[in-house]
Structures are given as structure tokens and as C-alpha cells.
Design goal:
alpha/beta; transferase; 11 helices; two-stranded antiparallel ribbon; tRNA (guanosine(34)-2'-O)-methyltransferase activity; 8-stranded mixed beta sheet; globular; 17% strand; Putative tRNA (cytidine(32)/guanosine(34)-2'-O)-methyltransferase; 327 residues; single chain; cytoplasm
Length: 327
């Protein structure tokens, strides 16, 4: 498969490289902003689960215009290449110290906008993926209510599944206006969407807490101490019109009305990704799969039947030794 094949299959991947975005997800935030004007009046913004940094790039470019300079804080467990105008925190969004560090960079002031495009490495088991994503969203919500100003906005990725209505009800406890939005650059075949939450306000008597990290504690207990409906349906909005590119369609390399196509490498390769070692092994032929040579085990059974007990075990062991690792 040539290096241009993905450029044909994924037009937003190609456009992201050509326009200097670190990932195609930049277009999702741009399209959400076109629909909801998320960046209007924003001077302090937080990007949770920020790596590789495409949403931080969007914030930097969109908020870096005229007026007082905006302060943007990006948070991720993984290292991220530096971005102009973006302060980076390599930390855990489930820890109170991370929230305190964010506020410290804002000189004690709360944020106007918190965004989160984080998602787990999907397993293909939809129920598990949806549950893990829901827990990640609740972790992002929990730190957001520590750093967000009253009336502020929160945008986070969700997986639309059976229990997504429970998530909506939990978000509505803190935001009177919650919309499920699907950008044009998000594939129709994907269950991802984005919860756009506006008008942050803490419920009366609610005391936010970050005493326990996510893996040791379920946030459902905290949020469910509040009263309200446990299931909620919110408006669904498809962002963008038919003039935008279709994320599920294959396009020719030469787009109509565009300059002559030239292959463009990614704007910023990942820094020490967790799959780096596996990629090296695959390229060098170090990754293999177990294969069974046909006839090996039947031969072993025949030899074992024809020999005394001890020698039969030996023959079977030798036959099993013919299992090989083929690259």
C-alpha cells in the first residue's frame, strides 16, 4: 500500500497535513466553533487529553488575534511537542494538583472554556469502550468544574451508546444547555460525537471533590448524590452543510480547485508513543505469529501409540517442537 493511499481514503487527514495541523481532529473543533461560536470572548482555555496537540493548535490560532493575549493550557499524560502560545502540563486530569496547576497558570482566574478530545484505545467491544469513554468524560467534567468560571463552556467527546442518556443527565446538572453535536469531519461510521455544554453553574450545595484518582474511585457516586432525572434526551445537531467534504468518502488525489497534489508528511510525528516498540519489531520482522505445521500432531499421536509410555511422551514433545514463529 503506497503512502498516498490514506490521502485518498481520508480527505481530512490529507487536508490536516497540508494546512499544518497535527491531526485531522482539528477540523472537528473548527466545525464545532463555526456552529456554536465557542471561542467568542475566550481569553483562558484548557485542552484536556491534548496530545498530539491539534485542538491546542486550533485554540492557539483562533485566540491569538487582536486584543489581550489568551492563555491556553494543554494537559496530557504523554509528552507533547511545544506549541507557540500554549503552556503544557504533563499530568493526570484526575488529580487535584493538576487543577491547581492550571489555575496557577491563569494567575488564580478560572477558565472560560474547557475542551477534551480524549478517548481510550478502543478494544472493539462496544460496551467496554463506551463505559471507559464515559468514565474519561466524567473525569474531564470533574476537573472542569474545578477550573471553569460560572457561565463557562465545556466540550468533550462522547461515544453514543445505550447509556449515553445517563451522561446527558449528569452534564445537565452543571450546564443548562447541552447539545450532542456531530461535526462533518467525524465519520458517520463512528459512534463518536461531542457534548457541547454551555452556561456552567454549580448546583446548590454541591461540593466538588478530587480526593481519589479515577482508577480507585467511581465518579457516579459523587454525581448521583444530586437529584434529577437519570435519563435525558438532548438535541442532536449535525455541524456543517453538504458543501463540506464527506469524511466517509474516498476522494481523488487531485481535488477540484486545489493546487497540484504533492505528498505532505505529517506536521508532527508522535513523541514516544506507546506503540513505538511494536512498530520497530514489526518493521524488523521481530513480531511473529504461531503457526502449526500440518500433520505434526497426528504424527505425534501415531508415534505415541506405537511406543512405550515414556517414549511416547518424548515423541509428542518433539512434534510440538515443530511449532514455529513465522514473521
Amino acid at each position: 500500500m503506497g503512502r498516498t493511499s490514506k490521502d485518498k481514503r481520508d480527505v481530512y487527514y490529507r487536508l490536516a497535513k497540508e494546512e499544518g495541523w497535527r491531526a485531522r481532529s482539528a477540523f472537528k473543533l473548527l466545525q464545532l466553533d463555526e456552529e456554536f461560536q465557542l471561542f467568542s470572548g475566550v481569553r483562558r482555555a484548557v485542552d484536556l487529553c491534548a496530545a498530539p496537540g491539534s485542538w491546542s493548535q486550533v485554540l492557539s490560532r483562533k485566540l491569538g488575534g487582536s486584543g489581550p493575549p489568551a492563555c491556553i493550557v494543554a494537559v496530557d499524560l504523554q509528552a507533547m511537542a511545544p506549541l507557540p502560545g500554549v503552556v503544557q502540563i504533563q499530568g493526570d486530569i484526575t488529580k487535584a494538583s493538576t487543577a491547581q496547576e492550571i489555575i496557577g497558570h491563569f494567575e488564580g482566574q478560572p477558565a472560560d472554556l474547557v475542551v477534551c478530545d480524549g478517548a481510550p484505545d478502543v478494544t472493539g467491544l462496544h460496551d467496554i469502550d463506551e463505559y471507559i469513554q464515559a468514565q474519561l468524560l466524567l473525569a474531564a467534567l470533574n476537573i472542569a468544574i474545578h477550573v471553569l468560571k460560572p457561565g463557562g463552556n465545556f466540550v468533550a467527546k462522547i461515544f453514543r451508546g445505550r447509556d449515553v442518556t445517563l451522561l446527558y443527565s449528569q452534564l445537565r446538572l452543571f450546564f443548562p444547555d447541552v447539545v450532542c453535536a456531530k461535526p462533518r469531519s467525524s465519520r458517520n461510521s463512528s459512534i463518536e460525537a461531542f457534548a457541547v455544554c454551555r452556561g456552567f453553574a454549580l448546583p446548590a450545595g454541591y461540593v466538588p471533590s478530587m480526593l481519589n484518582p479515577l482508577l480507585d474511585h467511581s465518579y457516579h457516586g459523587d454525581f448521583n448524590q444530586l437529584e434529577g432525572p437519570t435519563r435525558l434526551i438532548v438535541p442532536f445537531l449535525a455541524c456543517g452543510d453538504l458543501s463540506a467534504y464527506d469524511a466517509d468518502r474516498t476522494y481523488p488525489l487531485q481535488l477540484e480547485g486545489s493546487p497540484e497534489y504533492r505528498y505532505t508528511p505529517p506536521a508532527q510525528p508522535p513523541i514516544q508513543p506507546p506503540y513505538q516498540e511494536a512498530c520497530k519489531l514489526k518493521k524488523s520482522g521481530g513480531l511473529g505469529r504461531a503457526t502449526l505445521l500440518l500433520g505434526a500432531l497426528p504424527d505425534a499421536q501415531e508415534q505415541a501409540a506405537a511406543q512405550p509410555e515414556n517414549e511416547g511422551e518424548q515423541a509428542a514433545t518433539q512434534a510440538l517442537g515443530s511449532l514455529s514463529l513465522d514473521p
